[in-house]
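Run folding on both entries below.
>entry_1
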Amino acid sequence: MASIFRPLRSAAFVSLAALGFLAPASARQWNPDSRGASLDYTQILHSKGGGEAVIVWWVVPETFAGDANSQIIRDVLARYVVIGIAHGRPVAGGGMAFDNIADLKIADQTARSLSPLAANTTPPEVTQAISALQALGRQSLGPLGTGLRWFVFDGSTIHACTPGKMSVPYDGETYTYDTPIPGCPK
């Protein structure tokens, strides 16, 4: 079982580490490969001023290598929409405090609102993947990783590589993704 999640941990570490380097003046990638293009597109950093920031990350199968070791996580991410979100504010001493985001809704291309799966209905392989992402985030990114809250939605109407749209309303904003995302096979 541990070997199944080794590729997930590696890919998640790279992805989460990339989040740690994002800043309002971040540079764009030059000629990224398909995995880099999908990772870049699915991570949204909204600098709200005064040090406040919102990070929204749609974890898609296209950010993982197409090898046999990554196939399990790619299959899970093809069936479910996994969103990580953090809302941080600066605190005295230079740290960040993160909002406890209790609920999140997303909408598909028909504007149908989807609620996250309840913990007791989330399949075990999805729960294990989220646990690995949370643990990795805490270990590699400290406060940012601790601040990420993960939500899982039924993915039957939202797919990264088919035409459509997904929106994530949060804190007075609506963050959007147009699909197919960059990095999808042509």
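>entry_2
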Amino acid sequence: MNLTTHQLAEILIGVARSQQALIEAIEGMKAGFKGTYLAPALDSVAKIRATGRPLMLQEFPARVLLQCQGRAGPNVAQIVRDLEALLAAPQAAAAAPAAKSDTDLDMT
């Protein structure tokens, strides 16, 4: 079975919508949950603030969930374009990260 990028985008949107339903249920039980707890954690996972680096496939589902939280909802055509770009990009650099020594500590 081969999935198209459009089908994969639809699956990601479906998963994000089910996650959004859970978020709305928690927000209903505990007002302020989204702004206080969820938004900072989701921004961190989606690496929204990391402007100097390219989007990676592992961050993409969190970005789709962020789109589901907006009023307009996810843009399927844009998600398909982003997926195609991510899947076409060479993954060799991501698959084999350079080994760091003990002195190369990143404290960011």
